Amino acid sequence: MSDVVLAGELPFPARPDYLRAGSTLASWLTTTDHKRIAILYALTITVFFFMGGAAITAVRLELFVPNGWFLSSDTYNRLFSFHGIIMVWFFLVPSIPNTFGNFLMPLMIGAPDVAFPRLNLFSWYLTLVGGVFAVYTLIAGGVDTGWTFYTPFSTMFSNTHVLTAAAAVFVVGFASIATGVNFIATTHMLRAPGMTWFRLPLFVWSIYATSIVMVLSTPVLAISLMLVVAERWLGLPIFDPARGGDPILFQHLFWFYSHPAVYIMVLPAMGVVSEIIPCFARRRLFGYDFMVYAIIAIAGIGFFVWGHHMFVSGQSPYASLIFSFLSFVIAVPSAIKVFNWTATLYRGQISFNSPMLYALGFVGLFTTGGLSGLFLASIPVDVHVTDTYFVVAHFHYIMVGGSVSAFFGALHFWWPKITGKMYPESWAQFAAITMYFGFNMTFLPQFFAGYLGMPRRYHTYPAEFQVYNVMSSAGAAVLAAAYLLPLMYLTWSLLHGKRAPNNPWGATGLEWTTTSPPPPNNFDIQPLVDRGPYQYHAERESAGTDAPEVQNARSLR
Question: Which of 41, 88, 104, 109 is most buried, judging by how many CB atoms fall within 10 Å of its CB?
């Protein structure tokens, strides 16, 4: 027998919510609750985010003038290398999957926890161990290879701490593998009754596809770094051409992981945006089935495009032609997603709350980054702009403009559910708008500088590029302020914010049918799913109302 329960009317549980189910430090450090582990991940990556941000702040200050003014060239190399290593592997890769994926996936599929709770906690400790290696590398003097560890420089010539930096990435890679295995098993084994594959929220689909990419590609990164260590430490002739090695082999191995890693960072962001836009457009998601197939296509094709990073490496022109074609092909499912988000917005009753502003910022920045990626997929253009600031701008539009915007969108969207508190909406809207303009002010000039020939990773540069660097550094200051603002007002909301209702946005999905914050076991009664979350938007459209009973009704057993 089933009863219809309104999400806004669910009773608060008699037992404490997950935040109050043990308040000691030991209760947090030994927890197996996926929600608490998500909080531990969030705190950890926030620390790394600001560490990486501090490193690149020094770099941008140095580039204010053509000949530098306070950093040596060696220190400059170590700072941008540390920035890349920290931001890619200790923030961008785990940012959405390990925080919001951990917190939300079991709630969204009606499960009490992830499939392997102890493995979940172990993956966080692995991240800490990798972080210790990374911080030790910085304290001991840093590494100057860039985040790519290119051979033969990393194996034969660099006199910095390559081994400990490689160990940091190696260890944190196993944390990604453990998380991916957990999410795959959770999706297969713990869905609530009635939660079929094509009733899954797109955020769950994106995390599931990301997890497959993690499990299949991350071991290749581990092998690549082990080979670097083997040649540098043990003297094995793997990449040294003088002894029969092949330095280009490392590039193939590294990019076989690192291009799919782009989608480890972007696919979860796409899932976040696919949840936010239908909610604040008050419309069903356009083309759900096509969105699912686009996610699968992006995850699959992403394994076959690594060679477009190597057009100037001397690889076969026929191989370059194939990789160029596949790089254009993978733009198609990405374009489908942008088209479907736009179609969802069409004739919607759009409200510009802060999560929606971040989501719209993602769409704008990701589209700009994706279009610039088409230039890099073209062999003649890529040869011209390789190793220039054009590539830097493209990479950051996708990774930072896209993924970080979506991360902040998710943070604001699910903050009431995670904490049970509301934040000052006007400040959040101001931060979202500031972030969008600060980002464009930082990285748009780099497209022009790169196309005109300014190389990346150089300590000094010709004077004619100074205007672009001054604009970029000034924009970075605005962007830094936009990143700091949420830290302040979200902390304020924890202390003084109003108590959040169970569903403050009138959103759909199982996570909104439980209390804010959720109880330790997520649901007081087992959810029974009779339709997908986006079908409720269709009901709301056909009913022509925003009444809570149309928005939030769920069948619960």
Answer: 104
